[in-house]
Amino acid sequence: MAATPPEIIPVTLAELDAHPDEPANDDPHAYRLAGAARDMFRTNPAARPEDTVQLLARVEGTIVGRMNLLPGEALTPDGTARVAWGSGYAVHPDTRGRGVGGALMRAMHGRYPLLGALGASAMSEPIFRKLGWTLARAPRLVFVRRCKPVLRARISNAPIAAAAATFVDAGLRVRHAFTMRRGNAPGDVTIRETTSVPPSHLPTSLRGTLCFPRTTAWLDWMRRVVPQTDRRRWTVYLADRAGEPLGYFIVSDRFHETASRWGYRDLRLATVKDWQAADATPESNRVLAEVAARTAMTHDADAVELCTNDPELAHRLRTLGGFVRGSSPLFLHADDSAIVPALADPASWDFRSADGDYFVF
Questions:
Q1: What is the pLDDT of residue 174?
Q2: How many CB atoms lie within 10 A of CB 6?
Q3: How many CB atoms are closer than 10 A to CB 82?
Q4: How far is CA 233 from the centre of its chain?
Q5: Burial label, 239 (beta-carbon count in 10 A; 0-12, 13-18, 19+)
């Protein structure tokens, strides 16, 4: 007997208030948006009341899966287009293999001109490909400042791991002191922390076949919804060059009890989440990203990461001592025929590792 196909329930922004913070009877796994996550979606300045912000899958009267949709904007060769970022994808283990995941992804189609999913898991990647989504990858450049989390995953004897870390960290400090003198970042760049990005430091236009603009209101919203704790901080910097606005960048610091499939433990990671040069030129963006990486290296973190699909920037970061460790995948799908040609060349997309709700998660 064939399994009962899942019922897909779209939830609009206007309907969010109809759902209580506590899970409904049909949602024992708390898949509905609630609490801080619901407030984040409700206050998004790019969202409209009629926007679908969540898709729920129900099987035999019980919610067994979800896909969240975070509205935003994209710039295409034909102008501005609305985009929805898929995130929070989840299917209950007891119902996997019954088509729930595929039904949720198919239900995304047709609701926005452009759909995106950043950081999709290895489990969901084959489904995206099967449904015709286009993939781009941004290599992850990593700078190791302290190696204790790495050595603890490889050396079972804690005293030996600690002694080895002391020795290796001394070598890392010497290496970074040498490599950070390289690069093309000019000496006339000054940076300062800020709580809001003024329009003067935002680009008036962006380059690339597809790119994703920021606004002051959108960045301020993200700053408000990101929880600031001992385990997660979010710092915004403004950069000026020779007294003129160069742009802004954002560094996220987060503590991970476990990180990556290699089993690293108790890792504090500084991530260059976002950067945008005011003049939007590739060279200014590269200079700004270098400045951001150098600044992140001053944070009290075990490692620093920056993801970029710009080969020249990746080369410069390797010169500064970074090494490639994996990548950040971005999937896009266009339901608007005018946008489809822009997906043909993923190398021309201009995206950051913070697009969608990756500012927060």
A1: 66
A2: 24
A3: 17
A4: 15
A5: buried
